[in-house]
Amino acid sequence: MPTPPSLSPEQRALALEKATRVRKERAEVKRELKDGATSLSAVLERAERSEAIAKMRVLALLEALPAMGKIKARRLLDQVGISEARRVQGLGANQRAELLRIVGS
């Protein structure tokens, strides 16, 4: 396993602060999806402006949808031909369109 880079205390504090912001933003998006406050299409559009969302796994987004569990989300990814490790930024236009068509949002 590679050794982590040596950071100054200031660099480490900035990295920890950024990681906290990213986790909060991702948790907020998943909560909004679960509550129905936002749609999958809105989240995919938001990913174009937000690096934190763009680097989320598609599986995590699908699991956050109402009435979508882990098994159903994995089946959907298989159906569309998307790897479970795929991140939002790596989705092609056809994959996005197919997901939105199936999910209906």
In terms of DSSP E residues, the strand content is under 5%
The total count of strands amounts to: 0
Number of helices: 6
Largest sheet: none
What structural category arises from helix and sheet content? mainly alpha
Portion of residues within helices: 55-70%
Q: Provide the gyration radius in Å.
A: 16 Å
What is the 3D form?
elongated
Low-pLDDT stretches are none
Distance between the termini: 42 Å
Pattern of helices and strands: HHHHHH
Explain the overall architecture.
The protein is an all-alpha fold. It contains six helices and no strands. It has helices at 9-35, 40-46, 51-54, 58-64, 70-80, 93-103.
What's a quick, concise take on this entry?
The chain is mostly helical and 105 residues long.
